[in-house]
Amino acid sequence: MPTPEQDRTVRRRQLDIAIDHRLGEDFPAERREQLWQVQQRLERSRLQTAVRYLWRRLTARKTPATLRPGDADVLADAVAAAYGEVLDDAELRAFLDLEPGERPALPAQADQ
Q1: SS3 state at 69
Q2: Distance CA 95, CA 50 (A)
Q3: What pLDDT does 111 receive?
C-alpha cells in the first residue's frame, strides 16, 4: 500500500499529465497549482459522498439502485463547476474532453 504522500504524488503527476495532454505543456504553473487545489478540495469531499452513499444503501428499501436518478449528473456538474473556477469555457471543455454543447457526465458503466 502506498503511503499518503506517495498517493498524493501519484495523483499530482496524473493531473499534470492530463493538463499536458488536454491543455498543453505550456499551461501556466500558477494555474496548474489552482487546478491541484480544486482537485484536493474535490478529493476531501469524496469521503463525505461515500458516507452519504453508504447511508442511502443501509436505509434504502430493497432497491437495486446505488444512486438516485440525477445524482450522477449533479456530481458531474459539481466537478465541472469546481474546475470552471480556474478554467475558461474552452479550457474546461478541453480538460473534460467535451464537445461544444456537451454536458459533463460520469463515464457509463457496462452492464454486468
Answers
A1: coil
A2: 25
A3: 45
Q: Could you tell me if residue 76 is inside a domain?
A: yes
How many domains would you assign to the chain? 1
What is the reported pTM?
A: 0.73
Q: What is the pLDDT of residue 75?
A: 78
Helix (H) or strand (E) holding 25: none
Query: Exposed (0-12), middle (13-18) or buried (19+): which is 73, by Cβ within 10 Å?
Result: middle
Cβ distance 23 to 91 under 8 Å? yes
Give the whole-angstrom CA distance, residue 60 versus residue 47.
Answer: 20
Q: Which pLDDT tens digit goes with each residue over 51-91?
A: 776 676 666 655 555 556 566 677 788 888 999 999 999 99
- Provide the residue range defining the domain that includes 9: 4-95
Q: Find, among 99, 95, 45, 31, the residue nearest to 74 by Cα.
A: 45
Name which of 5, 4, 27 is nearest 15 in CA terms: 27
